[in-house]
Amino acid sequence: MAWPAEATIAPTPPPARLGQRRWIVVALLFAATVINYVDRQMLGLLKPLLSQEFHWSDTDYADIIFYFQAAYAVAYLVFGRVIDRVGARWGYALTFLVWNLAHMAHGLASGLVQFVLVRVALGAGEAGNFPAGLKSVAEWFPRRERALAVGIFNAGSNVGAIVTPLVVPLIVAVADWRMAFMVTGVISFAWLAAWLVFYRRPEEDRRLTTEELAHIRADGTVDATVQAEPRLGWVLRQRQTWAYVLAKFLTDPIWWVFLFWLPDFLGRRFGLDLSGFGPPLVAIYLMSDIGSVSGGWLSSRLIRGGIGANRARKLAMLAAAVCVVPVLAAPWVGGLVPAVLIIGLATAGHQGFSANLMTLPSDLFPPSAVATVVGMGGTAGAVGGMLMAKFTGWILQTTGGYGPVFLTAAAAYPLALLALQMLSPHLRPALPGTDGGGDPS
Question: Which residues, at least 6 apart from 162, have a Cβ–Cβ distance to it below 8 Å?
Fold first, then answer.
């Protein structure tokens, strides 16, 4: 069986002269994730303006987030299976088309129900971004480089969160909020054209050098047994599946809180408005970018130095979890700058944790099952996000403060790492033909 176990990862450096086609793939994934998060975050940025225009309460806004995440949860699971069947190239194109059209439709909405409907469509489309992106990384990168590649393309989420408060207020000032959705949507179609022109599997890319292809397949050639799409029942029986799913359920909701509620927190706590959100949000998400790339780099560097993947991934996630814990103090610090630094450290921790966590499906499962497992984890994270949205709305409606929300955020990552260790203490690959016993404790 050619599917690699942890012990097969050699610390030897790659050949001195390699092509760079695989990094162009990462650049495309990065750009798509930027667009994904611009589209996702715009509603949160415009919340004060839209709440005033449409008379939304905190629970109304929480309901919009809830239904977005409900659609995201269902579609994440569906897109995971679809992308494993049709491949990353056409699967990514489909999900992008759905979410970009839904994003533009926000500019036509005129009430709570219509916003719920377009957010449901947006959530359904955006759910395919990470299953397609992580499957692409699994196809184009050897195991020793995957966490770094994931960290780089996942950093697009932070860049999207930076671009949004810088660009959207300018469009709103020149035109209105409806035009902001239209303009950003039209520009985004350039990515779809670039993706369809460039992306192929490595074996189908005529410009890929034989040296780079050998480097990509350095972990071993996947044989026909591994290439065959595993049955869903087999995936469900693996302990590694549930380790990933539970960790996503615990940590994804915290990122949703940062993404959807930070402008509201900054407005309530420090009196900021649409024109003042830009600098603090840019600072927070710049720190997130550093965390995303650093978290992926750390475990990849440890693996290249000869440390096993299990230890390398978990050490990197432990360091990231420690960075999140101080966020519990954010609602009580005395000034905007300390609050931004604490929250930025926490978002950096999340992204470092996530860069390693999202690498696990490609570490632990054959390529033909990666998107399916990613889809299950994304569904679990979205369900957790639904519960967190309701919890946050209820807390704000009843107490007006974010204390319990940030306390929950501080606890989530140590708990997720503990769950991962208990369910998959060795991070051994799940092999077709086994029945859930690939990683015993």
Answer: 281, 282, 285, 286, 289
Give the domains, in start order, of the chain with CATH numbers: 21-209+238-423 (1.20.1250.20)
Q: Kindly report, residue by residue over 201-242, the tens digit of the pLDDT.
A: 999 888 888 888 888 888 654 433 345 566 778 888 899 999
**Could you report the per-residue pLDDT of 83-121, keeping only the tens digit for each?**
888 888 999 999 999 999 999 999 999 888 999 999 999
* Residues shown for the chain: 441
Residue where the block lists tokens 């009430």 = 111
pTM for this prediction: 0.72
